[in-house]
């Protein structure tokens, strides 16, 4: 392998950054596929760009090759994920690149899909094309955290959205909780929903708040074209309801298709209702890991959890949460108010370590992102 | 008054920013005086700079005039607070500026001290010197929030420092709480203490945690010269102890001079102990507003409250808090842990509105600054 000049390393990062920008355009639509972008460069000029829009449609490389036409010959191809080597809905991109006669392929990361996993790059190299992987890899991984988690662990990436006061409370003791955060935070939540494969909630939330958890076009705060994209692939709304307590006339069910995950036989409860998925459970409590495994089996990459302290607390206690997104409102709800998570702990050492990765203002509220910190014994 | 050119407005802001930078050097030492900086500019050159170091020593203007010498004649003087017009420990700065023959004086703000309150600038104007006030005024006010509050309201600026987990808890139910936040946050707290006129705490904290609340040179994280300055003017440690429950052999009392504010007659308890200040109280509970008024009467500009949820909650409930500085550790302590403030509220509408003014990373922890939000009915 040739040693790259410093100049080339900078150029590679530059074009990969553009490819990532293109990949991000698919953030609302590619599910269950990964978000992928591609840039083709010849003699210092971008001759083709493309991004994957939705499953069944061409991959990013194919869009870019079409745009480049004959100029792809001898060109360098930047792609945010290793080109595929297998026949899925579409023929392998590796073959398309070989047929187009490209000179070099730079990938941000290997495809974690076991059907690819290096074979795409290998195939290109065997055809005499210079290949490289790992340019802006952390950024590329971040964009497809869910797809990667599903491929590598058979579980979706679980993001728990919480909204709390500055003193860590979600609602008054009475349950009163509406409008803790402002419109900018709510738009932010709408976009988190639209990006997710699945929005997951629990029976308490649906019963107490009449929650529907839909994506509402007017509240996304996106331009018209992006709003249309987001609305074309709404997330599946999933209800964890171990005892099937939520009646069919709940607003949640009236708001559109939904999936119920339960651990009781649903025949009596929903003879003509939403799809039910039965997973193991104990005493009417759905085994949450089983539920997530089942969702991953259906191609779910990213789960957004919007639930009360009980379901969110249970997921947290079982180590099933990959990221917390906490909207913090500038107010105190006081010491009698409801806790962020139902998770009684006795010793300080039992408290889970988190790494706060970001805090930023969202309108008058603030958004805190935190991930479970790697600890010595995990 | 002449209309200033845009160029002059920019230059004025530039030199005032430098004067504020100088003023900030006094952040640890000027108590009970305000922090003031001064820059003298002639023909586009800085010919003198000065800042007020400590009470009894020369004011910023005098230092700057000494540095400028004869070059002060016809020069422009930038000062972060209106020059004084009264005889205090030192003669009036307005007279010194007039005697030096300066041409123009630009102040960031009027002196809120009722003994000055515009008279300094008036005196200068009467001597034929061009005067102006209000350049970078918000920044100047921020630097002397305590002095301004004391002058305008007869109360100190009260900053409540809290440390909590991401779920808004300060300690386990058992009381276990050591080392929630890391060394960078602790150094930050040390600097907050060193800046304060007074560090205020309650009997519970001193009894349960053996808290001393001293400033420790090694933990300030400052350079040697600044550390020496900070240590030369330690904040007075003040204990609110309505029933005089804290014994004289508590680490708090052994750590140096302290003031006890109580509402019982202290004769029996402290025959030879620390100074006691008796203020009104009900059933052994010190009236907190009276305590703060008494402190302001002693020249206290800034109070840093480091106390448990009970005293901090009482100050918050009584509307006596000007700023919350909350250190947030990346961990959950769980729903059984102790609350941020003892302040039970029933209705959402009763919860105080806050404006989060800053969130920033401090080592592995985060620091949130919030102020009570102005509401319609206040």
TrEMBL record, chains A, B:
Catalytic residues (positions): 61
Reaction(s) the record says it catalyses: 2,5-diamino-6-hydroxy-4-(5-phosphoribosylamino)-pyrimidine + H2O + H(+) = 5-amino-6-(5-phospho-D-ribosylamino)uracil + NH4(+); 5-amino-6-(5-phospho-D-ribitylamino)uracil + NADP(+) = 5-amino-6-(5-phospho-D-ribosylamino)uracil + NADPH + H(+)
E.C. number: 3.5.4.26, 1.1.1.193
One Gene Ontology molecular-function label: zinc ion binding
Biological process terms in GO annotation: riboflavin biosynthetic process
Domain CMP/dCMP-type deaminase: 10-132
Cofactor note: Binds 1 zinc ion.
Family annotation (Pfam families): dCMP_cyt_deam_1, RibD_C
Keyword list, A-Z: Hydrolase, Metal-binding, Multifunctional enzyme, NADP, Oxidoreductase, Riboflavin biosynthesis, Zinc
Record: residues binding Zn(2+): 59, 84, 93
Family: In the C-terminal section; belongs to the HTP reductase family.
NCBIfam families: eubact_ribD, ribD_Cterm
Obligatory cofactor(s): Zn(2+)
Coiled-coil boundaries: none
UniProt name for this protein: Riboflavin biosynthesis protein RibD
UniProt: NADP(+) binding residues: 163, 179, 205, 209, 308-314
Binding-site positions, substrate: 177, 193, 213, 216, 306
Pathway: Cofactor biosynthesis; riboflavin biosynthesis; 5-amino-6-(D-ribitylamino)uracil from GTP: step 3/4; Cofactor biosynthesis; riboflavin biosynthesis; 5-amino-6-(D-ribitylamino)uracil from GTP: step 2/4
PROSITE patterns: CYT_DCMP_DEAMINASES_1 (PS00903), CYT_DCMP_DEAMINASES_2 (PS51747)
Purpose of the protein: Converts 2,5-diamino-6-(ribosylamino)-4(3h)-pyrimidinone 5'-phosphate into 5-amino-6-(ribosylamino)-2,4(1h,3h)-pyrimidinedione 5'-phosphate.
